[in-house]
Design goal:
By secondary structure, the chain is of the alpha+beta class. It is built from 21 helices and 14 strands. The longest helix is centred in the N-terminal third of the chain and has 29 residues, at 24-52. The chain starts with a helix and ends with a helix.
Length: 595
């Protein structure tokens, strides 16, 4: 029996309409909407993820770099620079218009009309690539290239391209078109790791970007596609061919007229590499050390005006390899008052960066002027007689070269023939402390050993220190402090340091100086050990040879220079027994001043 409640439920079921299923179209629409929403969420999440992993925009935009140090010679001409990764900053406002117009005409014709990306350019590039079946054209705007050059790596990843697009919109919202173009011109990589068109202009054409001609501007712009492939140094034919296309584009876009383009096309030519400045590297390395001692750490670009005589430096760098063979050689030249004019620390900086002008070696007889100065101060004169004969102090028994002795001779003869017994006898007379004190007065006594062998040059010293001794003699006995820097300024000309000569201290009395100069003059006369250095203008000099011919020296003077020469082997092995201070070093000295 059916209850009233069951009848009521049955009636409700009878009146209820069956549920209709959604249509296929409706289901697809709902599915697409959900898919779109999910995709949008994923894309937004991915873009957010990429954005969060991006570098700090402001920090990279204002990236720090090592300070550029530009070294200049005594005439104010640039000889070399360090850390010059980027050239001098340039801008649309400071450059001749044809420089940036050459870039725009080939890299992004519609740069000033489109936004962060050039849709028309991208479409045109895609169609061109599809037709040719290869990647023959690119559609990146200058803004995109700027984003890539400044902030991003060269990795070909989707994430990098997303970052590039984000950065492009950021750049366009933050900077004007001119400012973006400025960033591009100053940061684009073009030549051997250097960045910016100014660096390229200096490397390729030896002029700043502000001095580029129309033809040179086209050749610089030609490199933007592929710096090595279109380099006017490595591939001049390809560079010139592309530069001609750029000139045609500049005419088509009405930046220049047809006659200007024709004249520019006629002047297109391969670039000339900058001169090799390795001959100045020993010098600039040395100057850098003095620079640090003068101003400590530095963070801004600066100009360092030095005392270098480039003509003299060139002569020295060319002369040394002609004489030393498989050995090494070093030369330093300075004025009597201490201005260093040239420095060559070896035969080839590329092969060895070790600066031998500052390396300690045994000076041999080149140290003897120190004890002779002591003798002259104590009343001896060049004409005073001394005795040259075998002599020993304890176990120390030095012999003359070739074991030849001259008996009673004048002090001048003993010095000119560089005998060994006389300096030892003089040291016994006046005391080893007098020799060390004299060396200290001359500026080189702090590291000398308190031994009789020091008198004959057994205690090591550098060529620079040894030459400084002779500079005092030719500076009329006044103290000498070698220096290589005359002035340091920032790029705006503000003086950061300027050399101020200190008041000279009298080290040697005039009579002593006069006698010593006479002794040095006799060395380069006939019969002296330095005879091979004799030529017009030579005032005097002294030879030196260490035990077993490991070191050979000649220190000589002209009216305005004191020049020290050293020859030897880096491993301290003996040279040929015929090589003494009076042979190759004296000949190098003569060759330098004769040229």
């Amino acid at each position: 029996m059916i209850t009233p409640q069951e009848k009521k439920l049955a009636k409700i079921r009878a009146t209820k309409k069956p549920t209709e299923k959604p249509s296929f179209t409706r289901r697809m629409m709902i599915w697409c909407i959900n898919l779109f929403l999910l995709g949008s969420i994923c894309i937004c999440g991915y873009v957010t993820y990429i954005y969060l992993r991006m570098p700090s925009l402001d920090s990279i935009l204002h990236e720090t770099r090592p300070a550029t140090i530009i070294f200049l010679d005594s005439s104010g001409d640039e000889i070399r620079s360090t850390n010059r990764i980027m050239g001098t900053p340039v801008s649309v406002d400071t450059l001749p218009p044809h420089v940036w117009q050459a870039i725009i005409s080939i890299e992004d014709k519609r740069f000033f009309q489109h936004g962060p990306i050039d849709i028309r350019g991208i479409t045109r590039a895609l169609l061109s690539n599809l037709i040719k079946g290869r990647i023959a054209a690119g559609g990146s705007s200058i803004t995109q290239q700027t984003a890539k050059n400044i902030f991003l790596s060269r990795e070909k990843k989707i994430s990098r391209k997303v970052q590039e697009l984000i950065l492009s919109y950021w750049l366009e919202n933050r900077f004007t078109k001119n400012q973006i173009l400025d960033l591009y011109m100053n940061r684009v990589s073009l030549v051997g790791g250097l960045r910016g068109i100014d660096a390229a202009a200096r490397a390729m054409f030896q002029v700043p970007a502000t001095k580029l001609t129309v033809a040179q501007s086209a050749q610089i712009a030609a490199m933007l596609k592929a710096p090595t492939t279109y380099s006017p140094l490595r591939n001049p034919d390809r560079n010139i061919a592309r530069a001609r296309i750029i000139l045609q584009e500049m005419v088509r876009q009405k930046y220049i007229d047809i006659n200007t383009a024709r004249l520019a096309a006629q002047s297109l030519k391969p670039a000339t590499a900058t001169a090799d400045t390795n001959m100045y590297r020993y010098w600039t390395d040395f100057v850098m050390d003095e620079l640090k001692s003068r101003i400590g750490t530095f963070e801004s670009d600066m100009l360092v005006y030095t005392t270098l005589d480039t003509d003299l430096q060139d002569r020295i760098a060319a002369t040394i390899p002609q004489y030393v063979g498989q050995s090494q050689g070093a030369v330093i030249a300075m004025t009597p008052d201490g201005a260093l004019r040239a420095m060559s620390g070896g035969t080839d900086y590329q092969l060895s960066q070790f600066n031998r002008t500052t390396a300690p070696r045994q000076p041999g007889s080149a140290f003897k002027p120190v004890i002779y100065l002591v003798a002259l101060e104590n009343g001896l004169t060049p004409d005073s007689y001394v005795n040259d004969s075998p002599f020993a102090i304890g176990d120390y028994n030095p012999k003359n070269y070739n074991e030849r002795y001259y008996g009673d001779i004048t002090l001048a003869t003993a010095f000119a023939k560089s005998v060994n017994s006389v300096p030892i006898k003089l040291t016994q007379t006046y005391g080893i402390d007098s020799v060390l004190n004299m060396a200290g007065r001359l500026g080189v006594g702090t590291k000398l050993r308190r031994e009789y062998s020091t008198v004959l040059g057994a205690s090591e010293m550098s060529l620079l220190d040894l030459t400084n001794i002779y500079a005092v003699i030719w500076n009329d006995g006044a103290s000498v402090h070698p220096y290589s820097i005359t002035k340091i300024t920032d790029l705006s000309g503000n003086i950061l340091y300027e050399h101020t000569p200190s008041d000279p201290i009298t080290i040697l009395q005039p009579e002593t100086v006069g006698f010593m100069q006479t002794l040095l003059a006799d060395v380069v006369k006939v019969g002296g050990t330095g005879g091979r250095a004799r030529t017009s203008g030579v005032l005097g000099g002294k030879t030196g040879t260490s035990n077993e011919n490991r070191d050979a020296w000649f220190i000589g003077a002209t009216n305005n220079l004191v020049i020290g020469v050293w020859v030897g082997n880096d491993d301290f092995t003996p040279m040929d027994s015929k090589i003494t201070g009076g042979t190759i070093p004296a000949e190098i000295f003569k060759s330098i001043i004769t040229k």
